[in-house]
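Design request, tokens follow.
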């Protein structure tokens, strides 16, 4: 629906009297911790009885939504055939890297080399 241009309005910016903070304040003042505990207990009871909505609601707050996509079944089978475990690989990556490239003084050597080159080029 197109907005009609209204005439004879006072120019300026409008400020809302109610804000999200006001509504949140009323919510927190109205719903006590005992009330919230009763709500959660009711959702738990329904979830145990098989209510999918209550299970999803509890899971959303307790576990959260998955961060990534689940691997496809084919990917899982290929990883199993190759004796590969992505969790183990991810956890071991830093240790393997440090074993291949020990962090003795190589970072400091690189910084010193770059600093020397910059000093040489600036003179």
């Amino acid at each position: 629906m197109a907005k009609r241009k209204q005439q004879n309005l006072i120019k300026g910016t409008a400020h809302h009297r109610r804000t999200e903070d006001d509504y949140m304040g009323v919510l927190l003042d109205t719903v006590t911790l005992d009330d919230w505990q009763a709500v959660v207990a009711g959702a738990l009871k329904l979830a145990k009885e098989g209510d999918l909505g209550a299970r999803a609601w509890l899971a959303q707050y307790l576990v959260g939504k998955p961060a990534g996509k689940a691997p496809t079944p084919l990917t899982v089978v290929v990883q199993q055939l190759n004796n590969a475990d992505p969790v183990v690989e991810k956890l071991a990556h830093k240790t393997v890297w440090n074993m291949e490239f020990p962090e003795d003084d190589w970072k400091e050597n690189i910084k010193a080399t770059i600093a020397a080159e910059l000093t040489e080029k600036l003179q």
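Comment from the thread starter after seeing the answer: thanks! The chain has a mean pLDDT of 83.
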